[in-house]
Design a protein that fits this description.
Keywords: Membrane, Transmembrane, Transmembrane helix. The protein has 2 helices and no strands. The protein is mainly alpha-helical. The protein has one domain. The longest helix has 27 residues. It is rod-shaped, with a radius of gyration of 14 Å.
Length: 35
C-alpha cells in the first residue's frame, strides 16, 4: 500500500482526498434531487 511506502501522513492525505472527491461529486446530485 502507499501508506507503508510514504508514511502515515501521505496515507491519510490520500484518504482525505478520496473522501473530498466523493463529497464534491455527490453533493451537487443530492442538491438537485432535493429540489
Amino acid at each position: 500500500m502507499y501508506g507503508e511506502c510514504f508514511g502515515t501522513y501521505t496515507r491519510w492525505a490520500v484518504v482525505f482526498l478520496i473522501i473530498f472527491v466523493l463529497f464534491v461529486l455527490l453533493v451537487p446530485y443530492g442538491g438537485a434531487a432535493a429540489y
